[in-house]
Amino acid sequence: NARVNTVIREITANNNDITEQAVEAVKAENQTYFQLKEIDPSVLTLEDYRRDPILRMLVIGQIQKQNFEHFEAIENEIRPKIKALEKKISQMKHS
Questions:
Q1: pTM of full prediction above 0.70
Q2: In whole angstroms, how far apart are CA 78 and each of 51, 73, 75, 82?
């Protein structure tokens, strides 16, 4: 998470559009969430997205999705570790 946050700070430092595009995608793709929470996303500020843990997580996910090339090295490092853990879990289930 720390590395992801560092990358996000680096790519958004000079380009606020990245965060704004991510927020717009969150609004568009999570209508059910907003309806269930009875939240009108059109009145939320950028600070609201920073303060709320779920909204912050959704925005971070969108930034990663929309700017994958900046996170590829982290993904390539983590992927083998996840596969190894999945294999261990599978083996434990079959023991």
A1: yes
A2: 27, 9, 5, 6
